[in-house]
Amino acid sequence: MGLFSSFRKAKTEDLDKGMAKTKESVFMKLTRVVAGRSKVDDDVLDDLEEVLISSDVGVNTTLKIIERIQARVAKDKFLTTNELNTILREEIQALLIDDKVDKPRNLDVPDGVKPYVIMVVGVNGVGKTTTIGKLAYQFKKAGKHVVLGAADTFRAAAIDQLVVWSQRVGVPVVKQQMGSDPASVAFDTLASAKTQDADVVIIDTAGRLHNKVNLMNELSKIKKVMQKVVPDAPHEVLLVLDGSTGQNAFEQAKEFTKATEVTALAITKLDGTAKGGVVIGVSDQFQIPVKYIGIGEGMDDLQLFDGKIFVESLFKN
């Protein structure tokens, strides 16, 4: 078993519960699409396109799914509406568990990489600090020595919140005063982590998008300064997105992928929204693996993302 076996990956009942609003919304819409129809024709596909777009799958990904289904209709000459759910599930799974996107989802800390440095980015309010706390909890539960870095020095509340999480989880946090240089905090965090022989470092960063040039410069500077302590840091850049914001999550992903090299996604707050389709669209459109999904407030409610289990849950009656 790998390091992350402690994640509740197999707890599909938690996922089913967390995805309830999205499932209910998608199923109601799909039921209306096939009502009174026997075969998958252009009208059904037009209506299906509308369902997917209104479920926040995104236009580009929706068109890709529709084209794949059209190809199957053309090949098989006739598909019944009873088969539509199965086909739709297969095509969405194919997008989510494509080799290009799925292989990086191995979440074990690589051998010989110590400390393993994760830089967390995202706008304020998406659940960034909460995600860091839950990640720290899971790493610690797996027996890893974790150090947090409060490099979001733009807001005093961000520093305070990370301190609260560090106390709650029982891991050290490195911080400076509000207004300090974020790169300086990151440097101190890595230096402290090396002194403590820590396994994992998680660095919080500010999420201001109103000046994209400043954001880009700040994240670049943090990276360069960290590399003075750990030459190949950060090993992972995790972008946290709020699933309940739907299309706004796409915009945020677009801006952050321009500002820095994002290597993984965490999509939060899926338990309170019918917009869970955003997981499918963001993963496909940006070709960045979704590694975690947040489906509740509890410490264990950050799940390792599994595309197959996610789609099975979405289409489960």
UniProtKB/TrEMBL annotation:
Its EC number is 3.6.5.4. GO terms for molecular function: GTP binding; GTPase activity; signal recognition particle binding. It is an enzyme of class 3 (hydrolase). It is found in: Cell membrane; Cytoplasm. It is a peripheral membrane protein. Keywords: Cell membrane, Cytoplasm, GTP-binding, Hydrolase, Membrane, Nucleotide-binding, Receptor. It catalyses: GTP + H2O = GDP + phosphate + H(+). Its main location: membrane. One of its GO terms (biological process) is SRP-dependent cotranslational protein targeting to membrane. Belongs to the GTP-binding SRP family. FtsY subfamily. NCBIfam families: ftsY. This is Signal recognition particle receptor FtsY.
